[in-house]
Amino acid sequence: MAYKILILGDYGVGKTSLYNYYKTHAPEAQEKPALKVKLLEITRRIEGQDNTVHLCDIPAKELSIANKPKLYQKTVGAMILFDISRPDTFRHALFWIEELMNYNGFGKVPIALLGNKTDIRFSSERVLNPIDAQQFIYRLNRSASKEDIESSFYEMSTKEAKGLLGILDKLIKAIIKHNVENK
Ligand SMILES: Nc1nc2c(ncn2[C@@H]2O[C@H](COP(=O)(O)OP(=O)(O)O)[C@@H](O)[C@H]2O)c(=O)[nH]1
Ligand SMILES: [Mg+2]
Which residues hold their Cβ within 5 A of ligand 2, which is an ion? Predict the structure, then answer.
């Protein structure tokens, strides 16, 4: 049994870059054949227990409305990316989260909201204020019908690639805590 985690977000925010980071840097990560998605099997040891996750990156051409229910089905957690230099991608994060929770069959699940491309923070003009994203997650956690859903916000850069395994582990912890069974 593996936890299915989707990487979602607008085009160009860095989803595939993040997937590729885990593919090369998560110990013993293995890419597995899968229909319509790129699927990476990763095992992380957390509090003495091995947890296997299936991290999925969806190629843009597969993300049609018709495919979405099947793609989102049984997803127990997600990494939702936006690009901190493109505020529209942050606004759309709300859309990705809603859509996932409508289709996954479990309703609300923990997410890691990820503001990517911090390396261009100082070279780009239209940078999103991280407070907005923090407030967004605060409200999302408070609105969870069950109190055990803990979503988090991080700023990160797939180019600098710091703390990315820690972000995955924290999400796995939240998923375990939420205790959704992925069958
Ligand atoms: N500066 C910068 N560029 C990034 C970062 N992550 C991804 N990119 C670039 O953004 C573009 C889109 O990345 P990609 O992973 O293909 O995005 P996707 O469409 O969400 O899968 C590529 O040119 C990447 O090299 C980052 O952290 N910093
Ligand atoms: Mg991609």
Answer: 15-16
